[in-house]
Amino acid sequence: MFGLSFLSPWYLLGALAVAVPIALHLFRRRTETVVDFPAVRLLVKSPVEQRRRRRLRELVLLALRVSALVLLAVAFARPYVAGRMLAADTPVTVVAVDTSFSLSNADVFARARARAEEAVRRAPPAHAVALVAFDETASTIVEPTTDRGAAVAAVGGLAPGASGTRYLAALARAVEIIGARAGRVTIVSDFQQGGWEGAAHASLPDDIELELVSVDGPLQNVAVLSIERREGRVVAGVHNFGLEPRAVPVSLSVDGRVVETLRLDLAAQSAAHVAFEAVVPASGTASIALEDAGGYAADDVRYLVLDPAPAARIAVVVADPSALRGGLYVERALGAADEGREFSVTVVDGRALSAWNASEMARHQALVVLGTRTLERGGRELIAGFLASGGSMLLALGPDVDPGTLPDVLGEAPAVGPDARSLDGGAATLVVGDTRHPVFRPFTQPTAALGDVSFQRFRPIEERGRTVLARFAGGAAALLEQMRPQGRLLFFTSDLDNQWNRFPLSPAFVPFIVETARYLTDGSRARTSWVLPATPSGLPPTPGVFTIDGTSGAAPGGGRRVAVNVDTRESNPAPMSREAFLEHVPRVPRSVTADPEADARKAEGEQRLWQLGLLVMFLALAGEALVGRRAS
Amino acid sequence: MAGQARYLDPAIVARLGTIDLKARTIVEGFLTGLHRSPFKGFSVEFAEYRQYLPGDDLATLDWKIYARSDRHVVKKFEEETNLECHILLDVSRSMGYGSPGVTKLQYASYLAGALAYLMNRQRDAVGLLTFDERIRDLLPCSARPGHLKSVLLALERVTLGAKTDVARPLGDLVQGIRKRGLVVLVSDLLDEPEPVIEGLKHFRYRGTDVIVFQVLDRDELEFPFDRAARFRDVETDDEVVAVPGAVREAYQARINELIAHYRTVLGQNGIDYCLLNTSQPLEVGLLSYLQTRKKAF
């Protein structure tokens, strides 16, 4: 049971190749030149290799060569230790422990550990036990094992992190571990409602028992939900998630020094914005901290980098800048983002753009093209080159766009109708097709619906090869995205310049344009704020202000400062009932059947003994080369 | 001179017929080449016939004259000595070694035959003793003309023996020598030198002149091998695997040290020593012998 097994045992036949070096060894011994010589007595005391020593060396060489061949054959046979793999019919109890920051209170997490240890010990005797730690993601801490002492010891090593809770991740990992076996999943958590994202659910095979072990956490919590700079001052959003009013002191710190403290009275389950009077510097770091003894510590502070982020450069291409419609609305909308610091907008008409060179064009992260009528050939090719090199563009197919120029502009024929059409019924609203798309991030709440805007005219466009993100109420495509290897290309089939519709005058216009611009420039701009568990590469998953890459930043030493904050979706301590939790876990018939071969493949893939075999083989060959060189 | 010298080339001598012919060719070629040598005029010349008298050795009867004239006459020579010359020929297995052309034993046999021929021609009594680790064959010294044939026949039939032990036959022989004489040792001397030297010293103590010919092959002197090989001792079958390039220098140092030791210690004891390379003409050995003989008289 605990022996070495092989995925491809037939490759072991390759080990028969050891006959080759053995035969060569023997053959060579027989044919070695023997010279009869009378004065051997005079050779004996010379620095020569004695026969016994040479024979020993030859044996070592032979052993090394045989070992190398055997190891090669073994490596190809894909070995694995079957003993480390449970039998296919061994049931497994997966104990999944919540390590999100809602359990970060020491007493609370000690209780969670105690519950987890108890769950390990309480698992049915026939079960193997696996340990999973989960927050936003799930990690297997202990693979299924019958050594419960090891599992209990591993529970003792768990520690809460700074991320939120995602039950989906825990259940998915548990189901993956159990596989085709019978099993049980024990979840040790405070069971916050926020652990489920909306209507998310995790299917669980109907023969897997689900046990929920609740750890009582705090029922009240005050959290800093947001921090931002407005007109030189810092504004924070604070939320009382408790059922009782709270009065908490809130402090503003700049570069680690407290500069202002306010006392904030919060009604039960209410939020408030805190505007500090202190003017913060143009660069540095700021943080908002509140005192919330009974709540979660991780969300009591939030960080902000004051360093000016380089604005994303966007060129708005119009047909005639002197006209009233010359990109005014788009320019103003983009200027509203982060008080004008997020985007640097250049409005340029087709003729002027045609005089640009490629390097001037390359300084822009994105283009918003509202008109192409005045674009000369050079300008069209410039835009086409910009797109080909990975640039992003929003093309609004309004009245100033000449469809005949588009093949040159896009580098391909976009199949746009030559004439504008009126929407059915004279007007139509916009219907978002994919609310998860980043462009529509502000419109997930009903109060900010795009459906209030009415559009009159549009240009039909071929949908094939493009993703329709939004349609007009009549079904015509309104916003499309064309997949590209690099960069992003969006088509808006109506006007963004207040000619064919009144969209620029609606409240949805600014967020739409800003989010679209952010989407177009995403990836080409340096982020200054991150929300866990996402962090810049190389940073630990903990909140704070960190200095990262580069030597051309505002931070001392030349790096670039970024703020990493917790995900405030975890801040709501509202628990959910067992029944509510189970509603998110529909039971499904088991679709996975036992597959010993798959288990063997998995075990082999995890152990990767073939790599060790190859490594030892290379060492044997190196040793053979060394010994062989000395013998020659 | 060159024409005669070629007959002293061991490789050519080896292709000649019997050892009798070989010895004759060597010596005649050698003596012919001596016209301008310091040994000019030195030879054993026929002097006269005289009437046979009772008591004369029947071997000295000239049977051809008797057949022609029915008279009994004996031959008289100018020089008649009572020098006893003992040729000690090493026939141990190591003497069978030889690079292509001639083995050490062949070379030594030719040399011994030539010496016997020369000695017999000079009316010296010549004897032959072959040995390896013990005495294999012994022909007592005699100056009779027919004795030469016995010596040459013995040389013709010589075969390789076993291991070398030079000291032992030397010890056996030294007890049997009572007259003033000459001992010629022909061997490769690949033996422990001290017992050999001690054995030879005893001859000197008894007033016997000794000349030692150490016959070695070019391979033994130069160790010219170029590929790693297992070198097997021809007498003991001991094997040593060696990379010639790595051991050549040390080997040459040791063989030269052995030669130098023989040369020095033997010289200090009044024993002539001559190193013979089997690729050298036999003339070298004959010259050494004559020098020693001249010294003896």
Can you walk through the features of this model?
The complex is a heterodimer of chains A (632) and B (297). With 632 residues, chain A is an alpha/beta fold. Chain A folds into three domains: 4-84 and 603-631, no CATH class; 92-217 and 575-594, Rossmann fold; 312-521, Class I glutamine amidotransferase (GATase) domain (Rossmann fold). Chain A is built from 15 helices and 31 strands. Chain A has a nine-stranded mixed beta sheet with strand order 18-17-19-20-27-26-25-22-23. Chain A has a five-stranded mixed beta sheet with strand order 6-5-4-7-9, with helices on both faces. In chain A, helix 1 packs antiparallel against helix 3 (51-76). By secondary structure, chain B is an alpha/beta fold. Chain B folds into two domains: 46-77, no CATH class; 84-296, von Willebrand factor, type A domain (Rossmann fold, 3-Layer(aba) Sandwich), CATH 3.40.50. Helix content of chain B is 42%, strand content 21%. Chain B has helices at 2-5, 10-14, 19-32, 63-69, 104-121, 145-156, 167-174, 193-205, 218-222, 244-268, 283-296, and strands at 46-51, 73-77, 84-90, 125-131, 135-142, 181-187, 209-216, 229-233, 239-242, 272-277. In chain B, the strands form three sheets. Chain B has a six-stranded mixed beta sheet with strand order 5-4-3-6-7-10, with helices on both faces. Chain B has a two-stranded antiparallel ribbon with strand order 1-2. Chain B has a two-stranded antiparallel sheet with strand order 8-9. In chain B, helix 8 (193-205) links the parallel strand 6 and strand 7. In chain B, helix 8 (193-205) runs parallel beside helix 10 (244-268). The longest helix of chain B is centred in the last third of the chain and has 25 residues, at 244-268. The model of chain B is unreliable at 1-7 and 33-44 (pLDDT under 50). The A-B interface holds A 32-51, 54, 632 and B 94, 97, 188, 190, 217, 219-220, 225, 227-236, 238-243, 246-247, 250-251, 254-255, 258. Strand 2 (34-37) of chain A pairs parallel with strand 8 (229-233) of chain B, so a sheet runs across the interface.
